Amino acid sequence: MSGRGSAELLELSGIALRVAEEAAALVQAGFRAGPRGLRVEEKGPHDLVTQFDRASEDLLVARLGALTPGIAVVGEEQGAARAAEPRGGLVWYVDPLDGTTNFVHGHPFWCVSVGLMDDDTPVAGAVVAPMLGLRWTGFRPREPEPLGAATAPAVAGEARRNGERCAVSATASLAHAMVATGFPTVRDRAPDNNFDAFVTVKRKAQAVRRCGSAAIDLCMVADGTYDAYWERRLHAWDVAAGSAIVRGAGGVITALDGGPPDYHVGNIVASNGLVHDPIIALFA
């Protein structure tokens, strides 16, 4: 059964951008606020949350609920409510402040991420990184629209960076590729902490970057800055928006073994497609 069409997803990506910009403005007010203006708590080792994470999520849930009634909203900071996380159908997944540790330390590499999944496939989203002066949007239907359909627009999907169309890179060799990754918050006690893979890819790629925001990393694959990105132990709110934008930009996303990705498990590789197989081969 086919999912939502391009025209509807274009509209929904616009809604995602609107609410992400509102939330980003709220969060930006607390950037570099210092210890008196910032309340920082630990959800666990290496896992921080501030009052701006929570206020941003409250705004996103309220605004998306008002603008798209009937579509469930799942956010990172909902705690126990995530135990009833919906599967299937249309669901918004929001990260109200992706890169909280960066935010707390005054590092500008953070964003607000709003992504829509259709039967667990990322189909539309927006990511706003105000301190970088960047915003990305994108959409691509879960399944191809029928050729000749009266309602089908000329384009099946797209990605935009600051309003301009963008696409994945044309880098064809891993030796010439800039690749991004990250590490899980449980890296001090989890065997799949990505350390070994980092060293392996670092030996083969031209460069590997680790900047602390999965959503921005994915968007930088979509706009051709990075040629590929991989990470382990992510969540749907980390990757829904960025993955939709990568799909809209013509990129490829799989599990680490090259199979279909499970965005709720979050062991994924995203790339321009040309360097995808060489990277996956390193994880075998």
From TrEMBL:
<dbReference type="GO" id="GO:0006020">
    <property type="term" value="P:inositol metabolic process"/>
</dbReference>
<keyword id="KW-0479">Metal-binding</keyword>
<dbReference type="InterPro" id="IPR000760">
    <property type="entry name" value="Inositol_monophosphatase-like"/>
</dbReference>
<protein>
    <recommendedName>
        <fullName>Inositol-1-monophosphatase</fullName>
        <ecNumber>3.1.3.25</ecNumber>
    </recommendedName>
</protein>
<feature type="binding site">
    <location>
        <position position="238"/>
    </location>
    <ligand>
        <name>Mg(2+)</name>
    </ligand>
</feature>
<dbReference type="InterPro" id="IPR020583">
    <property type="entry name" value="Inositol_monoP_metal-BS"/>
</dbReference>
<feature type="binding site">
    <location>
        <position position="76"/>
    </location>
    <ligand>
        <name>Mg(2+)</name>
    </ligand>
</feature>
<dbReference type="Pfam" id="PF00459">
    <property type="entry name" value="Inositol_P"/>
</dbReference>
<keyword id="KW-0378">Hydrolase</keyword>
<dbReference type="GO" id="GO:0008934">
    <property type="term" value="F:inositol monophosphate 1-phosphatase activity"/>
</dbReference>
<dbReference type="GO" id="GO:0007165">
    <property type="term" value="P:signal transduction"/>
</dbReference>
<dbReference type="GO" id="GO:0046854">
    <property type="term" value="P:phosphatidylinositol phosphate biosynthetic process"/>
</dbReference>
<dbReference type="InterPro" id="IPR020550">
    <property type="entry name" value="Inositol_monophosphatase_CS"/>
</dbReference>
<feature type="binding site">
    <location>
        <position position="97"/>
    </location>
    <ligand>
        <name>Mg(2+)</name>
    </ligand>
</feature>
<comment type="similarity">
    <text>Belongs to the inositol monophosphatase superfamily.</text>
</comment>
<feature type="binding site">
    <location>
        <position position="98"/>
    </location>
    <ligand>
        <name>Mg(2+)</name>
    </ligand>
</feature>
<dbReference type="GO" id="GO:0046872">
    <property type="term" value="F:metal ion binding"/>
</dbReference>
<keyword id="KW-0460">Magnesium</keyword>
<dbReference type="InterPro" id="IPR033942">
    <property type="entry name" value="IMPase"/>
</dbReference>
<feature type="binding site">
    <location>
        <position position="95"/>
    </location>
    <ligand>
        <name>Mg(2+)</name>
    </ligand>
</feature>
